[in-house]
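Reference record:
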Amino acid sequence: MSERSEQNDELTLLGNKKTVYSFDYDPSVLESFQNMNTHRDYFVKFNFPEFTSLCPITSQPDFATLYISYVPDEKMVESKSLKLYLFSFRNHGDFHEDCMNKIADDLIKLMDPKYLEVWGKFTPRGGISIDPYVNYGKPGTKWEKVAFDRLANHDLYPEKIDNR
């Protein structure tokens, strides 16, 4: 049996026809697999234009496009599990900033990446949009400095906001 097929045996969601969608925050749905290209650093980027959560005060829905980028080390996140995990925020009440930090924490715990960033671009509510950006660089590596530099220069050139 090849190394690739052995690691695929560990994935329970990919190709599963009986997918269960959790309506409550559920980090246990996240699955990882072995990075087959540890000989080089590279970015993996996910764009999730249908993120929803609830305001913890009013219970009104909040909508965002999420951008999750990371440089893997040994493990990578399986995309279907990530989709189900992000879907689990649908009825979760938390502030935008807390949701982005929670996502970053859960992905760091799952993968222990070299670098990770999570950026939520929320649609305006009450005339204000909120775009929290969270990043992480593995301590003691060059990626720790990359994280600091990217955070320090994150919004140096803000994009044109066009009511999304």
In short: The chain has four helices and six strands. The beta strands are 32-34, 44-54, 61-71, 75-77, 115-122, 133-137.
